[in-house]
Amino acid sequence: MYTEPTTFSAEEYFATQPPPPTLDHDIEKVREFIQRQNKEGRSVVLVTSGGTTVPLELNVVRFLDNFSAGTRGATSAEYFLKAGYAVIFMHRQFSLQLFSRHYSHSTNPFLDFLEIDGPLSDANNSNDPDAAPIISVTPEKRADLLEVLSMYKDVHKAGTLHTLTFVTVNDYLWLLRAVSQEMALLGRKSLFYLAAAVSDFFLPRQKMSIHKIQSGKGSLHIEMDQVPKILKPMVDEWTKEGFIVSFKLETDDNLLLPKARQALERYGHQVVIGNDLHRRKFEVVFVSRKESEFDEYWLRIDLGEHHGPAHHAKEIEEDIVAELVKRHNAWIEKGKL
Ligand code: 9Z3
């Protein structure tokens, strides 16, 4: 039998889907963080990062996932910190994180540039700590590590980074709503940078199988419901003064601008950043409104470009964040008129 999939409003969604068990505890910590940053006069950005999952069973064995390594979010969060923002980094568990992303186990494993000075046998046989071999960093890796490590230590000392994790789209939605409501305290000094790749479809708890779905009955048919359009209540109710930036991911180039414009029209927030899956590391488009017109601003980088003493490859997030900081400051100033 065919049943119409339910279209949940955000309100219906939160009335029928249970919150993650750690929500209250997580939000208490977020509240303390925001209050402190507010007292210290900082702007706060919420960066969401990584993909959300949709479990198919309550005792979950299988789930659908959304594509995202978390590079956009983790990289941008570092540039926001450099620009003086406090950052709430809300990311998919085990996706890339700030600072440690430079030493990913698959592309730049840190064990490869540590050296052992002194005979290895001493380490195993001697009880004398002075005889133990010393571990040092390969000379050519030192400048890079020092740069990352100093920033990591500075951020910890300043207490300007707060981290939250999600796995499922349900975790994400509940957290996003609660964090947005807390951010309202900051008025125009709050920025939302929604880079997480969020499922469009989900399986409501009421329709989920309790146990692992059994094979042997032929093909599997799953009907999913639409995830509510969360940006609408975010803009209209939860964070009326926040500067909201969402991302639009497409794989068909022809859809990128129309879909980005449609999102702005629908939700009335400040900026949609459109990115094509395969070009996202060197090209994005900012879509915003100028009175009744759409404004499009393309940002491109040359991937061969190098900068800084350690000759890192240029990261497009540096320019994305610089452009947004400019726009967010203008937004703050406008609020003072
Ligand atoms: C993005 O478009 C991100 O830029 C990427 C980043 C997921 C492409 P990586 O983590 O990739 O660097 O590997 N995020 C938003 C995707 C999304 O789900 N957007 C929703 C939509 O398009 C709206 S919030 O409908």
UniProtKB/TrEMBL annotation:
The keyword Ligase applies. GO terms for molecular function: ligase activity. It comes from the Eukaryota. InterPro entries: CoaB-like_sf, DNA/pantothenate-metab_flavo_C. The keyword Ligase applies. Keywords: Ligase. Residues 184-281 form the DNA/pantothenate metabolism flavoprotein C-terminal domain. GO terms for biological process: coenzyme A biosynthetic process. Pfam families: DFP (PF04127). Belongs to the PPC synthetase family. This is Phosphopantothenate-cysteine ligase. It comes from Coprinopsis cinerea (strain Okayama-7 / 130 / ATCC MYA-4618 / FGSC 9003) (Inky cap fungus).
